Amino acid sequence: MKILISGGGIGGLTAALCFLHHGAEVTVLEQAPKLGEVGAGIQIPPNAMKVFAALGLDAALAETAFQPLSIEARMGRSGLELFHIPLAEHAVKRWGAPYLHIHRTDYIAVLAAALRAQSPDALQLGGEVAGYCQTEEAVEVRLADGRRITGDALIGADGIHSPVREQMLGAEKPIFTGNIAWRAVVPMAALGAHAPRPTACAWMGPGKHCVTYRLRRGTLANFVGVVERDDWTTESWTERGTREEALADFADWHPTITRLLGEADTLYRWALFDRAPLPRWVDGRVALLGDAAHPMLPFMAQGAAMAVEDAWVVAREVTQKTSPARGLEAYQHLRQTRASRVQAGSRANAKTFHKRTRLGQLATYGPMWLAGKFAPMAVHKRQNPIYGHDVTRLDK
Ligand SMILES: Cc1cc2nc3c(=O)[nH]c(=O)nc-3n(C[C@H](O)[C@H](O)[C@H](O)COP(=O)(O)OP(=O)(O)OC[C@H]3O[C@@H](n4cnc5c(N)ncnc54)[C@H](O)[C@@H]3O)c2cc1C
Fold first, then answer.
1. Which helix H or strand E contains 14, and what residues bound it?
2. 39: pLDDT confidence band, cut at 50, 70 and 90?
3. What is the dihedral of CA 382, 342, 394, 45, to 10 degrees?
């Protein structure tokens, strides 16, 4: 069976590795001439790590990542701790795999190296997918440079502006959330006493929040800061803003935040759009995966993790059912409800993090503080349905 994959991001590369694992041949078509060097960190939660364990890549990812010791929530200005709960060994015990923080460039590098090792010609850079057509027997991809490639199924893992989705379902109408996300990565050595702790820390404030954590074996600090602003609306990994603007957005915040922003050489910003769940992800021999299928706000740190789960399920179903189209239908059936729930949960979290009034803060952060103090494991328990999920279980 020959599988074509449009997009060589986290979703597309993981899908390629999952299809190889299940015995299919793959071709990954990535429009970029070289693999993305995105200056940002990303969290790999246990539900995604279980797929990487099944692929034999968990050690390679862990080697270049950082394993946070705890999760924390703090107030953005005062630094007041709302809760501080151990995570590292608890993640493995409770959910069956570690929780990691990794640089996106390192993440992609581990996946691409594994793919090249197993199938040296599978990844084709500079291959921009322009469209597809299909018959009962095959699917054909048309590239922007005029080439045509035929396979048994096509997976559209080409992100939020997916051309495969646009052909399948028409142009989308995303809704701007009124939030932008700042991103920065700074060497820990530059931060002195104000370096972020070795935790996953969410800092809350009126109309904004941010998350700090460490990357690359603890040598880098990562910042993602979400601010309610409507003066700017581009979705991009490469769009830059100025340090002054970022510092103005977080003026009077805790020195951990202001020092980090002050030391950042480059500050990227990304406008956050919301999209309703799609009615379907599959058209015959073609299916969507990852952000192409279920783009979500980043407030649960699960977007890429959902793409990784999709990757395992689509590869298993397509290689085990009697036809690719049947396998893709089964994949959609198994994945759509879960991904839509996580999409909705991510949307709801924005409201939790940005409480503006004293009363709203007390009503939200008070119970958080109480739970952290008297029932810390209840905070972890709430994550069981997300982190405890194991899409590889059926194959064991
Ligand atoms: C600020 C922020 C923080 C986040 N933090 C987390 C986190 O901590 N944990 C988490 O799990 N998720 C997180 N996410 C979400 C995560 O980044 C995405 O869900 C994930 O990158 C989706 O992967 P993907 O492979 O589906 O799409 P993408 O990463 O967008 O990859 C798509 C690929 O397709 C390629 N492509 C596009 N068009 C074409 C074409 N025509 N032909 C060929 N190739 C094409 C692109 O070049 C790209 O390489 C965050 C998102 C944001 C914005």
1. helix 10-21
2. confident
3. -70
Q: Which residue has the higher pLDDT, 289 or 349?
A: 289
Q: Is 9 in the pocket of ligand 1 (CB under 6 A)?
A: yes
Catalytic, 268? Answer no
Does 302 sit in the ligand 1 pocket, CB within 6 Å?
A: yes
Task: State the distance from the centre of ligand 1 to the C-alpha of 76, rounded, in angstroms.
Answer: 28
CA 144–ligand 1 middle distance (angstroms): 21
Q: Are strands 25-30 and 2-6 parallel, antiparallel or unpaired?
A: parallel
What single string gives the DSSP state of each residue in 87-140?
-HHHHHHHHSS--EEEEHHHHHHHHHHHHHHH-TTSEEET--EEEEEE-SS-EE
CA distance 171 to 8: 22
pLDDT value at residue 369: 82
Which atom, in ligand 1's list, is nearest to the CA of 127?
A: 43
Confidence of residue 252 (pLDDT cuts 50, 70, 90): very high
pLDDT tens per residue, range 195-205: 999 999 999 99
